[in-house]
Structure formats: structure tokens, C-alpha cells
Design goal:
alpha+beta; six-stranded mixed β-sheet; 2 domains; about 325 residues; two-stranded antiparallel sheet
């Protein structure tokens, strides 16, 4: 009994050497070409193939790759992210940059004392843009699970909802949702929605450019941030309603920002996005970040992506969490 077991262990070791990420088709091809020289019997080859496939699925490191969903990103090493953080510190040191975003909203300490006027309440400003990022840019509250380093360009990183979802909520939707070259959206995904407001006389439109006009190039900006988790449940909230806009009191407004997700954490920061991983953002923003997550029906997000005044059809990448105290404002609880 010992000899077949030793032979099987050696076969597995040789067969899988250098094979991380092998697809099932590759497995079949390599096995069929190798096993014919080992066994004349088809039955013996079939039994060995079954045993080796079981081992492959159990081995750490992903010998057999998961089916590609269009949503995965190779994760860069910790050193890549640290180099970006070091570059951010170097490129902003002594240059007068104001506080930056995103941040851990549960951590109140910060050393950046560059002050700017806190923007008025959003009800006293004009909504100029709505967009969202895949995974939360901020960390805190119910979104503290790190998604990983991602690709180093803002995709596959950020923070995820820490709660549990049912199998029904995670069921695959009938159609692709907000597809892009970086992948689409799937049940269980976390998104951070930014409702952007401007003190300028503007109306809702695409990008940050919609928040500026010829009369005011440096308006006060406020972002109302709400983290959401996508579920395949028609009883969950309708994203189209949450992104519904209209005019109230002569001002453009988002009419249905959730009001049941906790007291917003307010702080002074900046615009976000992965373009600022190594550079400081020069835009000053008053932030209101809600600490609790709301569940949204994934199909309604897909419908919104098919057509809206903001021309948003996919999720944006996220900026690395800012950790330099010199780039963070103190939060007043």
C-alpha cells in the first residue's frame, strides 16, 4: 500500500509544479498528455485524474483558477501600496496642501490644520453630480473589511460591508450590471455613493466640471456619502429612487438620500479617486459620511447605469486610504 501512495504524492508534486492559476482546460490537457505514459488502463487514468483534481482544488494558492467573472483584479504587493503612500507624503510635504480624503471615519486624530470655510448644508447648495465607487473609499462604521491591495490603480481595493448576506440576496442577476473594462457589479458588492453639492449656480451634470461655472471656479463643495451593499432582492431599496433629483426651494437636490443610516461623520477633506494616490488633491471638500450601510436592489443600479443625466455607467476606482496624520484634519465628535 505504501508504494502507490508514495508514487501518487510524487506525481502530484511534479504535475503541479509551477501551475498556479491553471484553468480546468489546461488541467485536462496536461493530465491527458502525462497520464498516457504512466498508465495503459483508461480506468486507472480516470481514477488518478479524479484524485489529482481533488488535491488541486484543496491546495493553497489557487492551482485551479476560479471561473473568470470579469470582476477580479490581480493584487499588487504591499510594497507597491507603501511606495504610493510614501510618494504622497513626499509630494505634499511642506507645500500647503489641505486635509485629504478618504480616511478612517472612526479615527478622530489629525494634524492638518489648513482651514477652509465649512460648506453650507446640502439643502442650501446645488446638487451637481452623483457617482459611485466600487468598494467604500472611506473606512469605518459597517464597512471596515479590507478588500485587498487591488491592482494599484484603484480597482479591487477599498472597504467592504462587514455584515452577512443570505444565499437569496447573493443570487446571480439575470443580466450584467454596469459592465466596464474593470468588471461589473455583483450581488454582495459594496459601493460608496457620492452626492456632490456646489455653492455655485450650477445644475446636475457629468463629473466635477458640473460643479463649477464661469462665474465661480472655486465654489464650496460638499459631499454627502452613503455606502450601499448590492443584493438580489426586489424588496431592497431602489437605487433609482435614491438617486432621484429635483428642485426644492429653487435649488437642485437629491431628493431621497437615506436618513436612517446613522449620524453622518463630518470633516474637512478633499476630492478622491485613484488619480490622487501619489499626489495631493487641491480641491477642498466638506464631507458627511454615514456610518451605516443600506441594502440596494442590484437590478435598479443596473437600470440607472443605462441612462442618467450624469452619464455614469460604471463604478469608479478608489483612492488609497489616507493615513498620514499631516494630511488629515481632526474630527470633532
Amino acid at each position: 500500500m505504501a508504494q502507490p501512495y508514495v508514487f501518487f504524492r510524487i506525481s502530484v508534486k511534479v504535475f503541479f509544479k509551477g501551475s498556479v492559476g491553471m484553468q480546468l482546460g489546461q488541467f485536462d490537457k496536461r493530465f491527458n498528455s502525462s497520464a498516457r505514459s504512466m498508465f495503459a488502463s483508461k480506468a486507472a487514468r480516470k481514477q488518478l485524474k479524479y484524485q489529482m483534481l481533488i488535491v488541486a482544488l484543496a491546495l493553497p494558492g489557487g492551482v485551479i483558477a476560479a471561473p473568470h467573472s470579469g470582476d477580479s483584479h490581480a493584487s499588487v504587493a504591499d510594497q507597491v501600496i507603501q511606495a504610493q503612500q510614501d510618494a504622497l507624503g513626499k509630494n505634499t510635504a511642506g507645500k500647503g496642501y489641505g486635509p485629504q480624503s478618504p480616511r478612517d471615519i472612526d479615527a478622530l486624530f489629525g494634524r492638518n490644520l489648513v482651514s477652509f470655510g465649512t460648506a453650507p448644508k446640502s439643502s442650501e447648495m446645488n446638487l451637481c453630480n452623483i457617482h459611485f465607487h466600487k468598494n467604500a473609499e472611506h473606512k469605518g462604521g459597517q464597512f471596515t473589511k479590507f478588500a485587498g491591495n487591488g491592482d494599484g490603480h484603484g480597482y479591487g481595493t477599498g472597504y467592504k460591508y462587514v455584515g452577512e448576506l443570505s444565499a437569496e440576496e447573493l443570487a446571480k442577476p439575470a443580466a450584467e450590471v454596469c459592465p466596464s473594462k474593470h468588471g461589473g457589479l455583483y450581488p454582495g458588492d459594496t459601493i460608496e455613493v457620492h452626492y456632490v453639492y456646489s455653492s455655485a449656480r450650477v445644475h446636475p451634470g457629468p463629473s466635477l466640471g458640473a460643479c463649477l461655472n464661469d462665474a465661480i471656479k472655486n465654489p464650496q463643495l460638499r459631499v454627502e456619502a452613503q455606502v450601499m451593499v448590492l443584493v438580489n432582492d426586489a424588496k431592497a431599496k431602489d437605487f433609482r429612487e435614491l438617486a432621484k433629483i429635483g428642485v426644492k426651494g429653487g435649488l437642485h437636490q437629491a431628493l431621497n438620500i437615506p436618513g436612517d443610516t446613522g449620524k453622518p461623520v463630518q470633516y474637512g477633506g478633499s476630492t478622491t479617486g485613484p488619480a490622487y494616490n501619489e499626489q495631493g488633491s487641491p480641491f477642498q471638500v466638506s464631507w458627511s459620511v454615514r456610518p451605516m450601510v443600506t441594502k440596494v436592489h442590484i437590478d435598479t443600479v443596473g437600470e440607472w447605469c443605462k441612462g442618467n443625466v450624469f452619464r455614469e455607467d460604471h463604478a469608479h476606482g478608489v483612492r488609497n486610504l489616507v493615513g498620514h496624520y499631516e494630511l488629515l484634519s481632526p474630527i470633532n465628535p
